[in-house]
Amino acid sequence: MRTLSETNCGMRFILALILVWWPILGAAQTTEVDVELVLAVDVSRSMEPWELEIQRRGYAEALRSDAVWAAIQRGLLQRIAITYVEWAGFGTQRIIVPWTLIETRKDAEQVADKVTAHFDEGLRRTSVTSALDYSAYLIKQNEYDGLRRVIDISGDGPNNSGGTVSTARDAIVAQGITINGLPLMTHNPNGPYARWGIPDLDVYYQSCVIGGPGAFVIPVDDWDNFADAVRRKLVLEIAQDPLPIWRVQSQTSYNCRIGEEIWRRNMDLMTLP
Q: Which of 133 and 7 is assigned the larger pLDDT?
């Protein structure tokens, strides 16, 4: 018969084994991938319904493309994890495709099918800050362990709610996450939403939004070029290929709160008698 002392020693030994192996067992629950990629897509009210449709179809076309599949195949692990999120104002995000593992051509096609399964209407305001924070949260909470972690954010205007975007950018980059930008410079300068935008959105993204190793922007100035821009961007983010990138000159003195200032100015004008 075991003594109480022997029983306690045995229990302490088992507890010690649990404490040693618990971190390893917990880590084993994650899946290693070449990249964890958040596709954060602007659906603010300034986007027309036909523009929202072009966006969805453009991302779907890119995911189905030979170029993107070849990029996945060139990775060390030959698999990626991806989620597709639409965003607008502060706290306004909707997940269209939850985190999904892509390691076969069929996986990529199924994600593309989900992206174009339905088309929702646009939402109010533009919070790039909130979109970045939410994307970083999704990366931290998923069940994947990427060699790289990337937020791919598109947008047609500057941040106008949710706090200063450059502050959010700096905090996210400090976590080892890279942010790349797809500024949509497609609005008619004489159109109804012109007063909410800025003419140098590409410089704004370069100066205030993107960050991390190898971060870049690919501006889109014509919707006819959208699908091609997305494809090029995904290939670079997945395989880090040395493709030609349209970089713009960052301005260290750029006013990263210009969107908030434009919003306040326009709202003041709307309340005038």
A: 133
